[in-house]
Design a protein that fits this description.
single chain, mainly beta, about 120 residues, 4-stranded antiparallel β-sheet
Amino acid sequence: QVQLTESGGGSVQAGGSLRLSCLANVYIDSRCMGWFRQDPGKEREGVAYIYTGHTYYADSVKGRFTISRDNAKNTLYLQMIGLKPEDTAMYYCTAAPWQRDCAGWERSPLLPSRGQGTQVTVSS
């Protein structure tokens, strides 16, 4: 069973930066991994995904967020700069089964496995 543990959330002022981490108990290469966010009362939104050498971003975060991974550490990252109040949400790490790509991530941002989430709060 895939277990994902996020860390790195916090409270920052607009324009600030945070780096989220997601530690997995499985190999993270050769499977789609990603981050989605959800704020109470809002729809779940896919933020950034990665599969082999390909990365995918929501339009709202392009140029500000960068997804990356360290396969040796089974850790996924999300570097966030230029944070805005509208980025405030619970951020979840999510993972697809082995050798599953990221097709359809925009329609279905939640992959079969997800972590407990880490809160990001951006104040103006």
